[in-house]
Amino acid sequence: METTKKDLLSLDEKELTELVLSLGEPKYRAEQLFSQMHKGVSPEQMTNISKSFKQKLSEVAYFYLPTIEKKLVSAIDGTVKYLFALSDGNCVESVVMKYKHGNTICISSQVGCLMGCAFCASTIGGKVRDLAPSELLGQIIAAERDGGERISNIVMMGIGEPLDNYDNVIKFLRLVGNEKGLNIGYRHISLSTCGLVDKIAMLAKEDLPITLSISLHASDDATRSSIMPINKKWNIDALLDACKDYFLKTGRRISFEYTLIAGKNDSVEAAKKLAALLNSKLRSRTETMPIHVNLIPVNEVKESGFERSAKEAVDRFAATLNKLGLRATVRRKLGADINASCGQLRRAHEQENKTSN
Ligand code: SAH
């Protein structure tokens, strides 16, 4: 929408201060705006700033929070899935999961995705656009306001490839950690990537000690390239080198996502190869890098035709990794009754709109 106006919630404190000063207001107004907006209060709704300032501000800037287009609540475990509408009508998904250690939100980083992974619903229509820092924050703020409870953990595992939206994601990470804003610690944030090696190297230097999750999904290049096009640009070897560097620079453990697809990557041989690969590339006699493997039986997406592995195959795969010294757990499926994995609600919504237009 208002492209020439500034997007207030995307501004950091310095930028907000410059804006406030340029409008002839004292510096502390920037702090008031920052802390209120990050609670979801629009400048218009604020009671401690004057009408004339609100007027001046609205002429040069806007504030927008995602609105709830659809909301599904799991009757099994209370997981909440939102389809949020953005200011231009595009929609993205977020999921709030309730754990003993607090509420975790899974947020989207782009509208659609360019990466083309064969099993994934988010990439089917390609990428529409990147999300702004305000839209990344907005998913959390809007979900907190709706749920009435603090969200203390973030996983960037929704629609999109976060490292393909690098600058906005970095700005978002700095904003979300600000103690005057949402104040979510970096140790409570995970970012999942399909393996953009150049960006992993950049991230390692940002001094943002978040947990990196790598979508690995295969233990050899031929299999990985057949389901993840990014592997043709950066193969497993290059990716694991980047992971090792990330660990050496940040000291943060890395977790690997491995989606189990029947007959494709779920054999005992594949598990043995995976253990050998991670142990030899990331661990030696002198250093023990903490590694965690998350096994996710694939969520079946009708367009991909992949089937989830049988329970026995999943258990066998996990047991093989554990026996070979890798901590592996099978991801507990939350929100099974609301199809809580990402990408599918947005697609269904778009198709409904197409047929109704
Ligand atoms: N683009 C990022 C983050 C989004 S996807 C990435 O690739 O990591 C979040 C995780 O869900 C990734 O591990 C992704 O590979 C996985 N995923 C995508 N579609 C899936 C499906 N149908 N079943 C199981 N996992 C899936």
Strand order of the largest sheet: 3-4-5-6-9-10-11-12-13-14
Q: Round the Cα radius of gyration to an integer and report it.
A: 21 Å
Mean pLDDT: 93
How many separate helices? 11
Ligand types: S-adenosyl-L-homocysteine
Characterize the main sheet. Answer: 10 strands, mixed
Shape: globular
- By secondary-structure content and strand pairing, the structural class works out as alpha/beta
Oligomer: single chain
Distance between the termini: 22 Å
- Poorly predicted spans: none
- Total number of strands: 14
Topology:
Layout (H helix, E strand, L loop, with lengths): L5 E2 L5 H10 L5 H10 L13 H10 E2 L4 E7 L6 E6 L5 E9 L2 E5 L3 E3 L14 E4 L2 H15 L3 E6 L9 H11 L12 E5 L3 H8 L6 E5 L5 H7 L8 H15 L3 E7 L7 H15 L8 E7 L13 H13 L3 E4 L13 H13 L1
Helix pairs in contact: 1-2, 4-5, 6-8, 9-10
Descriptive notes:
- With 357 residues, the chain is an alpha/beta fold.
- 36% of the residues lie in helices and 20% in strands.
- It has helices spanning 13-22, 28-37, 51-60, 133-147, 166-176, 197-204, 221-227, 236-250, 268-282, 311-323, 344-356; strands spanning 6-7, 61-62, 67-73, 80-85, 91-99, 102-106, 110-112, 127-130, 151-156, 189-193, 211-215, 254-260, 291-297, 327-330.
- Strands 3-4-5-6-9-10-11-12-13-14 form a ten-stranded mixed sheet. Strands 1-2 form a two-stranded parallel sheet. It has a two-stranded antiparallel sheet with strand order 7-8.
- The protein is globular, with a radius of gyration of 21 Å.
- It starts with 5 loop residues before the first strand and ends with a helix.
- The model has no long low-confidence stretch (mean pLDDT 93).
- Bound molecules: S-adenosyl-L-homocysteine.
- The site of S-adenosyl-L-homocysteine has 17 residues, from strand 10 and strand 12.
